[in-house]
Structure formats: structure tokens, C-alpha cells
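Hi there,

I know you've been waiting on this one. I reran it after we fixed the sequence typo, so this is the corrected version. Both the input and the resulting structure follow.
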Amino acid sequence: MAKRASDKVRRIVEALLFAAPSALPPKKIADTIGDTDVRVVRKQIEQLQKEYDEEGRSFQIQEIAGGYQIRTRPDYAAYVQQLKREREDAHLSQAALETLAIIAYKQPVVRADIVAIRGVESDEMVRSLARRGYIKIVGRKEEPGRPLLYGTTKHFLQKFGINSLKDLPKLEEVLPSKPVFKAGR
């Protein structure tokens, strides 16, 4: 019966470590479980790590900043980083989407035109979209200062599931039918 109770505590510890967004101190784990102490928690963490090592799991329990956390083993870190990059690419903020839409519809376009349309500084958004591969420099405008011209990439088309820029929805289809704001009286 004691072994079954010990196994249950170990699985609870594992579930807490798995679900926690950051390292959990052993006291917090013990308090969450209730009716157990820090020594038992540490023993169960050692047992879990032993299981992970014996089974050759791709993750391990690390002691970090006074707590414990389940982390990917270094051998698999590159794969996890790739997945994180893909997730970051998949999520674009409203500001990034606005900037990207302006570039997609107005390309080739200079930063000053993006700012004029959005009404706010967009340098960081342009850099971020370029870093993520959605846009690229496509040339220079023939005017004083020769500002950079931006356009979308094949990566943009792939991520948004369109074959060419001709497949973008017409502006009339995506813009509100009524003005968002009214001009002064």
C-alpha cells in the first residue's frame, strides 16, 4: 500500500512539473500536494529522473533557481527551437498584421508610406517581418535619399496559403463598409 501511495505522489509531482510554466520550488510542490513534505518531494523527483534516464527520455528534470522544471535534454534542443520559431512565425500581432497587409497591397512600398497609412512608427514591425521572412527589400525608390522598397516573399504566400498576390482578397472585401472614424465637423 505504501508503494502505491509513493507512486501516486510521484505521478502528482510529475504532473505539477509538467504543467508548471516555470521552475517549482519543492515547498510549493509539497504544499500543493498536501500531507507530504519537501524530503518526500525531492525523493520522488530523484526517482522520476532515474526513470527518465533509464528509459532514455528526451527530457529531464533540472534544478533551476531554487526549483525544479522538466526541460528538454540538450541533444533535442535544436528540434524544440525549430518548433518555437515556427510557432512564433504562426502568431503575428495586430500591428504586424497591419504592417504586412499594407506591404502586401501597396508593394513595392517605402517605410514612410507604411507610417503614413498606419499612423504610427513601424520600423520595428518592418524589421520583425523581415527577420521572420515575410517581407524583403526589393529595391530603392528613385527619390532623394533613395529609401528602401519592401515587398512580400514566397514565405508570406506559403504561410497565408495563397498562390500569388492576385489571390489576395480585394480591399473592398476586407475593409469595413462604413468609415471607422469621422472627419471633423
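Quick highlight: The radius of gyration is 26 Å.

Best,
R. S.
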